[in-house]
Amino acid sequence: MPIRVPKELPAIKVLEKEKIFVMDEDRAMHQDIRPLEILILNLMPKKDETEVQLLRLLSNTPLQINVEFLHMSSHETKNTSSEHLNRFYHQFKEIRNEFYDGLIITGAPIEQIPFEQVDYWNELQEIFEWSKSHVFSTFHICWGAQAGLYYHHKIDKYLLNQKLTGIFEHDVLNHTWSILKGFDDIFYAPHSRYTGIKRSDVDRIEELEILVESREAGIFLIGNKNNRAFYATGHLEYDRETLEQEFKRDQQKGLSPSLPKNYFPNDNLADQPKLRWHMAASLLFSNWLNYAVYQNTPYDLTELLEEKNRK
């Protein structure tokens, strides 16, 4: 799939080495089609790494996609340069009158902080509310999923006894959902979090359904029955080395982290972790783009606002 991004975005060089077709703005202007408009709200500290991970996953369909990035203006980013943000990212005030086929909201390493104490919570609530009338389908990841469930459905997170980290086996509970087309009964996915969601809290919401669950890691994927919102509590977008990097980062902070489960062969840090989740990651995101977004989104996105006004 041709992903259309700014020509100078550093992630392009990484993706091109992987033979992923990235289309710059100049070439895309010569294709007479309406591409999907996808917005990524990147809440992760190392934004360049997350850019590569998500753009890689969005590359697995024949659809042309315009990708834009959003960051929180009410939060000071310490791990990404202001030059990078100013050049490649929007602030919410700049795009609040725009419409998008899809929105991806990433995780953030702040699960232990109550939502209302997050410094950008007010701004994020604005974005959640705006998305109801300006975005067709939203994919929430990890803390982004917990925040979305809290805002839209009053489902709160709860603190785990210790950090959940590792690669876990997951069971597909309902194959009839289009976002799970082509999935085997069981697949693997990474988790990295201190908090969880209770099944009983999700089950009481009529419009939500738990689609994928793990015996060890709990709920993984929740879908809104109108295909307009999905909530993934894990990190299928993670690279092979991401959990290792997080483990070593926590060691350097003196946190005495537990070794990620089912990750290092024989729990030996000297052995390279096996990559067992990228096929599922590619399939999940391509299914979301194709079935939840492309086949259902209106050609004229302003109809989203008209739809909300009619309700």
UniProtKB/TrEMBL annotation:
Active site per the UniProt annotation: 142, 235, 237
MF term (GO), any: homoserine O-acetyltransferase activity
Positions of the record's site feature: Important for substrate specificity: 192
Family: Belongs to the MetA family.
Subcellular location: Cytoplasm
Chief site of localization: cytoplasm
Organism superkingdom: Bacteria
Pathway where this protein functions: Amino-acid biosynthesis; L-methionine biosynthesis via de novo pathway; O-acetyl-L-homoserine from L-homoserine: step 1/1
NCBIfam families reported in the protein's UniProt record: metA (TIGR01001)
Catalysed conversion reaction: L-homoserine + acetyl-CoA = O-acetyl-L-homoserine + CoA
Name by which UniProt lists this protein: Homoserine O-acetyltransferase
InterPro entries: Class_I_gatase-like (IPR029062), HST_MetA (IPR005697), MetA_family (IPR033752)
Biological role stated in the UniProt entry: Transfers an acetyl group from acetyl-CoA to L-homoserine, forming acetyl-L-homoserine.
GO CC entries: cytoplasm
BP terms from Gene Ontology: L-methionine biosynthetic process from homoserine via O-succinyl-L-homoserine and cystathionine
Site features described as Important for acyl-CoA specificity, chain residue numbers: 111
Binding site for substrate: 163, 192, 249
Keywords of the record: Acyltransferase, Amino-acid biosynthesis, Cytoplasm, Methionine biosynthesis, Transferase
Pfam families: HTS
EC number: 2.3.1.31
